């Protein structure tokens, strides 16, 4: 920023010297040294004043630094213009008209440089806040952008008209002096060249400000769009950097508040959903020989399998973070259909007869039908779809010998294939009134025997890779610990 300002000084000092000789007959009459020495000295004073008063900007709140930067720069140029006018008046008895032209010239240069430096500071602040994750708190009624546009346009128009008028006035004075000594065509060329030069300089500054302002607007809009795009993908942690004390700052603030409200609403809905799942799963549990620990263990087995399985490229696309979380949340509903099975069958301590087993085999469909009713009433979503898949397909087998539909291989939903292994493993290691608990190694041996028959070989590979985690989950959520909790 300091280098940018120094460049402005060098260019502005040269332009002011050219401006002076083109708009003011008095300045045009001075020698090059008499004109440039006070100009260079004055610009050095501006730079010194900016250094001395930099705390006026740097110590202010971030949201006020842009405004203070503009105020400091334009004030220094105005004071310098006044100082130059007084200097020429005292030393050379310059006319008041000449002093006014000096002040106007410095004011115009100061305005454009102040605008450029303010926009540069605005950009630096935005980049700083974006990288740090911090925010400013914009005023409730900031200076409107529409006023900034209209005031800038008006000042530019007045500057162009005013300077051109002064150039023409000076040239008319010059024509009176040269009279017939200079051909008319040559005089016209001189005048047009001067006017073109002055207009071109002002237009270069105007375009520089326009491009800088457009760049800042692009940056603010890009930040807003990036945050909204993240929210559209489900990322409710996204934020827009609140970095400007204007309508864009307020827009960013309100966007962040909206995202926060959505995140809170989503959290509440998630809690409600989880409570409903646990309530339904617990309802099924009260009518079954299985325990609350079974629900916690199987859902953690499913998650462990899914996280391991997605390391396999053949399954990675199906198991993104959202899907893994939905599998984890939906797993407790795998046996919800058992609420429709008579107690005489569900609670029978011994082996079921063929007729009883046929009735028991209906529980996956009962659960899926209940969840389908919920889908029709509430609308389809990923959670209900996966919950229905798990309920309906967790007793299907890889070789097609399972139930209720006799699906085989990849026709069985991946959610059902994961749940099948988790459910069987937990049934094997858990004690029931009709059987003792097996060790992990014995359960593992039975599961490996079902590789390619009962279970998906890919899921078996994932199980072998994370079997230590299965053992840990079984210990963490053992029936005794769950009952004690």
From TrEMBL:
GO terms for cellular component: membrane. CDD domains: HAMP (cd06225), HDc (cd00077). InterPro entries: Cyclic_di-GMP/3'3'-cGAMP_PDE, HAMP_dom, HD/PDEase_dom, HD_GYP_dom, MASE10. The keyword Membrane applies. One of its GO terms (biological process) is signal transduction. The keyword Transmembrane helix applies. This is Response regulator RpfG family c-di-GMP phosphodiesterase. The lineage of its organism: Bacteria, Pseudomonadati, Pseudomonadota, Gammaproteobacteria, Cellvibrionales.
């Amino acid at each position: 920023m300091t280098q940018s300002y120094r460049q402005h000084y060098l260019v502005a000092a040269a332009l002011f010297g050219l401006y002076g000789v083109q708009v003011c007959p008095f300045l045009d009459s001075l020698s090059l040294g008499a004109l440039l020495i006070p100009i260079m000295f004055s610009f050095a004073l501006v730079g010194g004043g900016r250094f001395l008063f930099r705390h006026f900007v740097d110590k202010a709140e971030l949201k006020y630094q842009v405004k203070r930067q503009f105020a400091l720069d334009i004030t220094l140029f105005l004071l310098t213009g006044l100082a130059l006018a007084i200097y020429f008046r005292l030393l050379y008895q310059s006319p008041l008209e000449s002093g006014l032209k000096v002040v106007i010239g410095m004011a115009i240069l100061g305005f454009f440089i102040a605008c450029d430096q303010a926009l540069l500071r605005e950009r630096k602040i935005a980049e700083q806040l974006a990288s740090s994750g911090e925010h400013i708190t914009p005023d409730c009624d900031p200076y409107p952008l529409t006023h900034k546009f209209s005031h800038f346009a008006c000042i530019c128009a007045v500057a162009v008209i005013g300077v051109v008028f002064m150039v023409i006035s000076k040239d008319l004075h010059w024509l009176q002096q040269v009279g017939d000594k200079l051909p008319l065509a040559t005089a016209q060329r001189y005048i047009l060249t001067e006017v073109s030069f002055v207009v071109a300089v002002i237009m270069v500054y105007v375009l520089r400000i326009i491009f800088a302002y457009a760049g800042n607007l692009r940056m603010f809009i890009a930040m807003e769009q990036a945050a909204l795009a993240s929210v559209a993908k489900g990322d409710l942690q996204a934020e827009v950097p609140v970095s400007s004390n204007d309508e864009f700052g307020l827009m960013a603030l309100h966007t962040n508040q909206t995202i926060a409200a959505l995140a809170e609403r989503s959290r509440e809905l998630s809690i409600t959903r989880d409570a409903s799942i646990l309530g339904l799963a617990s309802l099924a549990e009260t009518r079954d020989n299985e325990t609350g620990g079974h629900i916690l263990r199987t859902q953690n087995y499913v998650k462990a399998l899914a996280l391991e399985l997605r390391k396999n490229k053949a399954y990675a696309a199906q198991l993104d973070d959202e899907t893994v979380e939905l599998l984890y949340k939906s797993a407790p509903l795998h046996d919800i259909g058992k609420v429709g099975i008579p107690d005489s069958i569900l609670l029978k301590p011994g082996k079921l007869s063929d007729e009883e087993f046929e009735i028991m085999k209906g529980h996956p469909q009962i659960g899926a039908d209940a969840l389908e009713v919920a889908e029709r009433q509430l609308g389809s979503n990923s959670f209900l779809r996966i919950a229905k898949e798990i309920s309906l397909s967790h007793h299907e087998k890889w070789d097609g010998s399972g139930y209720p539909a006799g699906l085989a291989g990849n026709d069985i939903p991946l959610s059902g294939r994961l749940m099948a292994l988790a459910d069987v493993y937990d049934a094997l290691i858990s004690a029931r009134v009709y059987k003792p608990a097996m060790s992990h190694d014995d359960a593992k041996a039975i599961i490996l025997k079902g590789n390619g028959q009962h279970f998906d070989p890919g899921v078996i590979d994932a199980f072998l890779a994370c079997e230590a985690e299965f053992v840990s989950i079984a210990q963490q959520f053992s029936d005794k610990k769950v009952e004690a909790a």
